[in-house]
Amino acid sequence: MEAIDKVSVHGGHSGQFCNHATDSLEDIVLSYIDKGFTWVGITEHAPPINDDLRYADEAEDGLTAAVLVERFGRYMEECRRLQQKYSAQIQLYAALEIETYSGYEEFVPFLIERFAPDYIVGSVHFVNDINFDYSEMMYDRAADSAGGIDELYLEYFDLQYEMIRRLKPEVVGHFDLIRIFDSGYRERLKKPQVVARMRRNLELIKELDLILDFNLRALLKGASEPYICESILKMVLEYEIKIVPGDDSHSMAAVGNFFDLGVAILKSHGFRTEWARPI
After folding, report:
1. CATH number (domain holding residue 203)
2. Interatomic CA distance for residues 84 and 139, integer angstroms
3. What is the pLDDT of residue 3?
4. Is the residue at 106 inside a domain?
5. For the purposes of burial, counting CB atoms within 10 Å of the CB of 264, is it exposed (0-12), middle (13-18) or buried (19 or more)?
6. Is residue 273 situated within a structural domain?
7. pLDDT grade for 220, boundaries at 50, 70 and 90
8. At what angle do helices 104-115 and 65-85 cross, to 10 degrees?
9. Separation between Cα atoms, residue 63 and residue 58, nearest integer Å
10. 163 half-sphere exposure, CB direction, 13 A CA radius
11. Could you report the per-residue pLDDT of 83-95, keeping only the tens digit for each?
12. Residue 52 sits in which domain range?
């Protein structure tokens, strides 16, 4: 049997530092250790740039942007403590999952300078400053703001391209998250304008030698395939882009979710399983 290291390039959200997660960060790290992971990127969400761009759950809990920046600082301190405490058992990276709302071009470099994460995950959860993956209602709002679902896809991939070009994140998170509430995504991903933008983005990812997050959380939430889906995986293989599993865990129970299935999918498409590290 081939020995395949258990890793996650994008994961470790905890209820301690994320309103839509549960459990303490240390308990989540212990779950990774118990499940035999070799290395894990703990990739908490960036704090918002202002109160208007908070996640809905943060706003509901009355957390201001200033409070969330302070909480992120405590997250980084805890990550560093856990890195040292468990260094003999697991390699932990203290990372940052960024956002792409208005002003991110200046705000993300500020966060990087202030908190010095080991690496960043470049994700897109906002289009036209609407958090489209929070709910189907928010997704519909984002589509309306773009002029339709086709246009939403185009804006998403354009925003992703600019983010990658500007910030050069070591890891690109859930490349095709924009399909989250689109039951017709398989056909939409075949449309020439969408394909052209995906190829453009993948070419830039290849040029910059970045890692793609093979995000398995979609399966936990009932989707039929991970981010990245099969049709895009074929392009990723064509470009010989590095791809690494990410459990995107938000609880102890979700640690390592669907890792074996994710590996089987990647192997069935011809990907190697000697995982690239982000640093």
Report:
1. 3.20.20.140
2. 40
3. 84
4. yes
5. exposed
6. no
7. confident
8. 40
9. 5
10. 32
11. 999 999 999 999 9
12. 6-268
Is the pTM value of this prediction over 0.70?
yes
C-alpha distance from residue 83 to each of 96, 112, 119, 155, 157 (Å): 15, 19, 14, 38, 34
Model confidence over 94-145: pLDDT tens digits?
A: 999 999 999 999 999 999 999 999 999 999 999 999 999 999 999 999 999 9
In a domain, 216, yes or no: yes
Question: For the chain, how many residues are written?
Answer: 279
Domain count, the chain: 1
What pLDDT is attached to residue 2? 67
Q: Is residue 279 one of the residues assigned to a domain?
A: no
Burial class (CB in 10 A: 0-12, 13-18, 19+), 181: middle
Q: Of 157, 45, 63, 159, nearest to 108 (Cα)?
A: 45
Secondary structure (H, E, C), the chain: CCCCCEEEEEECCCCCCCCCCCCCHHHHHHHHHHCCEEEEEEEEECCCCCHHHCCHHHHHCCCCHHHHHHHHHHHHHHHHHHHHHCCCCCEEEEEEEECCCCCHHHHHHHHHHHHCCCCEEECCCEECCEECCCCHHHHHHHHHHHCCHHHHHHHHHHHHHHHHHHHCCCEECCCCHHHCCCCCHHHHCCCHHHHHHHHHHHHHHHHHCCEEEEECHHHHCCCCCCECCHHHHHHHHHHCCEEEEECCCCCCCCCCCCHHHHHHHHHHCCCCCCCCCCC
Question: How do 91-98 and 37-45 pair as beta strands?
Answer: parallel
Per-residue pLDDT reduced to its tens digit, 161-209: 999 999 999 999 999 999 999 999 999 999 999 999 999 999 999 999 9
126: β partners: 131
